[in-house]
Specification:
Radius of gyration: 12 Å
Strand order of the largest sheet: 3-2-1-4
Number of strands: 4
Oligomer: single chain
Distance between the termini: 17 Å
Structural class: alpha+beta
Number of helices: 1
Strand content: 25-35%
């Protein structure tokens, strides 16, 4: 595994959410988790950043989240940043 990455996604049912993915070598990725917003809970970007950072630290790989504070479906990905 090359990195753990958080990527914004969204749809008409769930609004904005964050997907945590394993960035794989030499190419590809695997889905790790999806973080949705819960009423009264932490914003999904904040929760996903904390979980992604902890997982990346545990695995000894970099963590990338281009836009943790503002939903951005066009933010640069780890391989292109």
């Amino acid at each position: 595994m090359a990195a753990v990455e958080a990527v914004w996604g969204g749809d008409t049912v769930h609004d904005w959410f964050v997907v945590l993915v394993a960035v794989l070598n030499p190419a590809g990725e695997g889905h790790l988790a999806t973080v949705h917003h819960r009423p009264g809970g932490h914003p999904p970007g904040l929760a996903a950043a904390a979980a992604g950072r902890a997982l990346a630290d545990f695995l000894g790989v970099p963590f990338h989240f281009a836009s943790p504070d503002v939903p951005d479906g066009q933010a640069p990905r780890w391989r292109t940043a």
